[in-house]
Amino acid sequence: MTETFRWFGKSDAVTLSDIRQSGAIGVVTALHHIPNGEIWPIDDIQATKNEILNAGLEWSFIESIPIHENIKLRQGDYLKRIENYKQSLINVAECGVKNVCYNFMPVLDWTRTHLFWELEDGSTALRFDKVEMAVFETYIMQRNDVKKDYDEAILAKAKQRYEAMSKTKIQRLKDGILKGLPGTVDDLDISTFKKMIAQYKDLSHSDLKSNLSYFLNEIIPLAEELGVKMAIHPDDPPFDIMGLPRIITSERDLDDLVGFIDSPSNGITFCTGSLGANKNNDLPRMIEKFKNRIHFLHLRNVKREDDGSFYEDHHLEGSSDMFEIVKAVLKIEKERNISLPMRPDHGHQMLDDLKHNNSYAGYTAIGRLKGLAELRGLSLGISKSGII
After folding, report:
1. d(CA 78, CA 65)
2. Where are the domains of the chain?
3. Is 298 labeled as catalytic in the residue annotation?
4. Can 233 be counted among the known catalytic residues?
5. pLDDT tens digits for range 286-308
6. pLDDT single digits (tens) 182-203
């Protein structure tokens, strides 16, 4: 695996120098200052690439060129936005950056109820709490049809939880959901958020998949011509929330994806955390099944709980068997004679990083460094053992 680190640009407390010291050779980043749906200018792309090269690293993957909501909805000026996306692909290819991670999740890239949830060892982790999500939807967002998505037991606990919450805790929950996204969107208020959600009121899962298929059939032929690999990221969490349809949550969804258009450019970012939060997913089997379409790896582990809650565990612990996952990855790399770009994902806030709250939640330096070191050791151990 080719080790990479995500970097959020000049505003990131984790510097390119820090990344180089981690032992990673690649950087995963984007032009976060360009609004969604606008064309990425060649000068901006090249300037970012040069900054990375000057730090002794390479720009391994773009994460991401965001997809405008009008494309996902297939409404308004979506045709113009698709043409803008095509031009951005032409421009990044001209600059020699030809790996693009993206997602098709409505409104939010990922959702957590806690950004700094304290673990037993004193470090903090990202957490999705099903009860607190029901609190947010029922009492903060005040969604009318919330009963469709939660059973009575969860809603009863949510009522109890909300009545016991202080104003500070309510604000923390609100901020965690609306302001927890690093380098993607501006902070949202409830009014704006509800308007964005409302756009999807009449859009079904099949409608959203149809819109993804339309988008891919527009861009993938160009991507293949340019030699660009597109790699969709699974939904996080991998189940419906806030009345929004989900699109990539399971093996069946990935079957649909690769069936939309048959091209090596139509690929997958295999995120073991997002897919691992769905208890029905057999990750090693899925790696083998989609081995020719996996272009990028996000390796992390989550600990699932019985009610659908989960939190980010240590990289080698949690509900997914990371030994079997890495073994499956190394096997397909050997078969394909490639080294897949991989980044450790959603590290804990720990040690000296606990003293500084200037890093994005989940993207502190030390927690990801620990995860990378563990994954590097596991990979080396499997490779040296001769079991693949």
Report:
1. 15
2. 2-112+203-385, 126-194
3. yes
4. yes
5. 999 999 999 999 999 999 999 99
6. 544 456 788 888 888 999 988 9
